[in-house]
Write a structure and sequence with these properties.
Length: 369
């Protein structure tokens, strides 16, 4: 039951010199030595009383001699003890102050190292190409680590394969969009809006699973999210279609040579919302049982028996499919979490896929995850 196309009954970041530093030179009198008053012996000679210390300023009059009356003998030991106590106190204060300074310096260094200082911090701002750009002018941006980058380093238009080695190149009409915690690829629904792998990512002669999160904004079809085939036709395609007047998700394969229309087999889900909301679309092929199945989120929409899948050698495609030698079915909206497995996932594994808890189940290829 076909409509004559390749789908069965369906659309598709100092001192002055010579002055001796203030000391008298040989042959000079010492202006700083006080002179005795008339009739008085010179200082230091017998009969000299105790006087005030010399004064350095020559403008002052000579000191007046002064004698002290006899008094009680000073307690030299007590004075010495008091002096020693004061010295100990000064030493204690000096040592204590030094230790406190060391503690404060160490604390300040620790505070700085822990990031408590007022340090300028540049944060990356996402650009339309998905590459972070600096928010400041002179600071280097905080770049994403390679493990988190959605693209190949130095290649902003080449999606990075997180589990394999196959990049996917973006066409001029496709772009990356950065959201809070993920990156998505956006398609405009036009012929120049797609992404293409370097080679085939799926061996359709063996069991496989192909999956993507999809957001469709089109009310008309066909709109294919993921496909693979050759220059003539697709081997499989996964996306949106209008089937018998109903908007539906579809997983379709070719079982005959060159993708003849009469050999297409499909599974559809036409009882769920298909526009303007995210859905996890997953198509599986069990080579042993020769069955295909379509899953929406983690619910199986159905399955179909097939004789096998025609192995077109062409590369993996995002956002379009090949029909009768013509690219068509351009996707309109974003995609992310694109993953391929070399086995047909079961119910438990697909539930893990939906919840991002795959455990030991690892994809052979993944992009934008």
């Amino acid at each position: 039951m076909t409509d004559g196309t390749d789908r069965p009954n369906t659309p598709q970041p100092g001192p002055a010199s010579g002055g001796g530093y203030g000391y008298p030179q040989p042959g000079q009198s010492n202006p700083y030595q006080p002179q005795p008053a008339p009739g008085q012996p010179a200082p230091g000679q017998p009969g000299q009383g105790f006087g005030p210390p010399p004064v350095a300023d020559e403008t002052f009059p000579p000191p007046i001699p002064e004698t002290f009356s006899a008094g009680p003998t000073p307690d030299w030991q007590a004075l010495a003890d008091a002096t020693e106590a004061q010295r100990r106190k000064r030493r204690f204060l000096a040592v204590g102050g030094g230790a406190l300074a060391v503690v404060l310096v160490a604390a300040g260094a620790a505070f700085f190292l822990m990031g408590g200082g007022d340090q300028p911090k540049d944060k990356p701002v996402a650009s339309s190409s998905g590459s972070p750009s600096p928010s400041g002018g002179s600071k280097s941006p905080d770049k994403k680590s390679e493990d988190d980058s959605p693209t190949v380093p130095g290649e902003p238009n080449l999606l990075r394969d997180r589990n394999g080695k196959m990049g996917i190149a973006l066409s001029p009409g496709a772009s990356l969009g950065e959201l809070a915690n993920r990156t998505e690829i956006r398609f405009k629904g036009s012929a120049d809006s797609y992404a293409q792998g370097a080679e085939a990512a799926v061996d359709v002669t063996k069991s496989f699973t192909v999956s993507t999160r999809a957001y469709n904004v089109s009310e008309t079809g066909p709109r294919m999210a993921v496909s693979q085939g050759d220059g003539v036709s697709y081997s499989f395609e996964l996306g949106f279609e209008v089937v018998n007047g109903k908007k539906a998700w579809v997983f379709r394969v070719q079982t005959g040579d060159k993708g003849q229309a009469a050999t297409a087999q499909q599974v559809v889900a036409d009882t769920v919302d298909t526009t303007r909301q995210w859905a996890l679309l997953t198509g599986t092929y069990d080579a042993e049982k020769k069955t295909i199945a379509l899953w929406v989120d983690d619910k199986q929409a159905g399955q179909a028996q097939v004789s096998g899948i025609w192995a077109g050698p062409g590369p993996l495609q995002l956002g379009r499919a090949r029909h009768h030698g013509i690219w068509s079915a351009s996707w309109m909206g974003p995609l992310d979490h694109i993953r391929i497995f070399d086995q047909a996932l079961n119910q438990e594994q697909i539930t893990g896929l939906k919840n991002n808890k795959l455990g030991k189940t690892k994809p052979t290829h993944s992009w934008l995850v």
